[in-house]
């Protein structure tokens, strides 16, 4: 579930823990996966989180461990978390790109299907064929698992245009072990949650989660405004917080925590057999949290439906390829000029030239942050975000030095047509949004406006704003 952090953990333990040979020799490996060789300017790692009820070496979990996972009785090989990590060959940064589990893609041997079926469905089909051919159950399990991994790797490569160079996998238990090893992870919720299917039952605001609670936090997908996309955002902010914890001085200087991390990795992580993880770690030894970012592929429609009624996330492979390629060459956040204007209005305003302050007088905790994030996704500059310090207001307003300016009108339109008023204390290029209890625009329920005319025309969804592991604290999420 939190496979992206496994590499960071290995980097840390590989350099700070003395038993390097033990660490390397006890990590589970997988071979014959048809991987590439990093010839496109980056090392591309496919990180997969599975619902496996075994550890990385195929050993069944104890009943007490199963009970602690709150994962139900179903035995499956679902890949509920799929993350492609791009690391430039110089090791200067890392971008983790989430792929929604319901993305509808071409799966080899199956056809169009949800991408999370590539592993599980291929594995089960292959296992049944092998058993019918007389293979032992153990051999059929090993070979079918290998086939499932290959199918997922190929599906991701076809979708993104990237040749996967390395593979890492972690199960539910591994997520819990890694989280507990750092003493829990800080998160923040916009509102209280009580969702019995995942076991998520949390108060609003910042809190530290570990064990099964942490697992419930990242597994919840029901009762979220954007379903799986909101779950991805939760996973990303959690992973960013875990990266900060792993790279913190209190972890790096604590032999007990480093030993616990190493034990967690040995029991829960599977790596491809051709990966010299220590050589890779050497390349990343100077990597800081601020150079680790989390992105999400663009989606055409997060509420898509197939001809036979199956709920899917519709994606455009050509758009995904362009987006992923841009993350390496630095153009992903620089769309074509025709696509760069906010879709909610016709304007020549360059959003990056406008700084937006957001002041909250709505009584809704975290709303200013959500609205600021929505505007940031459109390209507006982030100004001051906090509570409103003036006299209480009952109606949301946009304040600007010139209420007739194109900048003020653009921000007002982006937030659903809020009234604009004058405030000569503001500079020419600064707009202030004051949120009252009547506000119902983007951000009020975690929603965000679209970022390009192309997405609007197709009824699509823009990717979530990037999550930065170098920030000082957890971002509040749905």
Q: Quick one: overall form?
A: globular
Q: Find the count of extended strands (DSSP E, 2+ residues).
A: 22
Low-confidence sequence ranges: 1-13, 333-347, 446-463
Q: How would you sum up the major sheet?
A: 8 strands, mixed
N- and C-termini, Cα separation = 19 Å
Question: Could you explain how this protein is built, in words?
Answer:
The structure is a single chain. This protein has 478 residues and is an alpha/beta fold. The chain is built from 15 helices and 22 strands. The strands form six sheets. An eight-stranded mixed β-sheet has the order 1-12-7-2-3-4-13-21, sandwiched between helices. A five-stranded mixed β-sheet has the order 17-16-20-18-19, covered by helices on one side. Strands 11-8-22 form a three-stranded mixed β-sheet. Strand 16, helix 13 and strand 17 (381-387) form a beta-alpha-beta unit. Helix 1 crosses helix 10 (255-268) and helix 6 (172-181) packs antiparallel against helix 10.
Per-chain topology:
Layout: H1 4-16, H2 20-25, E1 28-30, E2 42-50, H3 63-69, E3 79-88, E4 94-98, E5 104-107, E6 111-114, H4 117-132, H5 137-160, E7 166-170, H6 172-181, E8 185-189, E9 193-195, E10 200-202, E11 205-209, H7 211-219, H8 228-246, H9 249-252, H10 255-268, E12 269-272, H11 277-283, E13 292-296, E14 301-305, E15 311-314, H12 317-329, E16 355-360, H13 367-377, E17 381-387, E18 397-400, H14 406-414, E19 419-422, E20 430-435, H15 453-457, E21 467-468, E22 476-477
Parallel strand pairs: 1-12, 2-7, 4-13, 8-22, 16-17, 16-20, 18-19
Antiparallel strand pairs: 2-3, 3-4, 5-6, 7-12, 8-11, 9-10, 13-21, 14-15, 18-20
Helix pairs in contact: 1-8, 1-10, 1-11, 4-5, 6-7, 6-10
